[in-house]
Design brief:
The protein is 0% helix and 74% strand. The protein has a five-stranded mixed barrel.
């Protein structure tokens, strides 16, 4: 299975907000993250980058 770690970007700050994310759902300016164990988190912002070779996604904070 392919999971990624998600980071929230606020200016120069990079905060790791969720590990082992299996699903990312974008609805307008809300992004719902679902982990491999079914845990969920919703954040506001937009996706800047998803890099599977590094196993990470970057979200620009709203």
């Amino acid at each position: 299975m392919c999971e990624i770690n998600v980071f929230l970007l606020r200016g120069d700050e990079r905060e790791r907000i969720m590990d082992s994310v299996a699903k990312i759902l974008v609805e307008g300016d809300s992004i719902q993250l679902t982990g491999i164990l079914g845990d969920k988190m919703t954040v506001g912002g937009s996706i800047k980058e998803v890099n599977f070779s590094r196993g990470e996604a970057l979200i620009l904070a709203k």
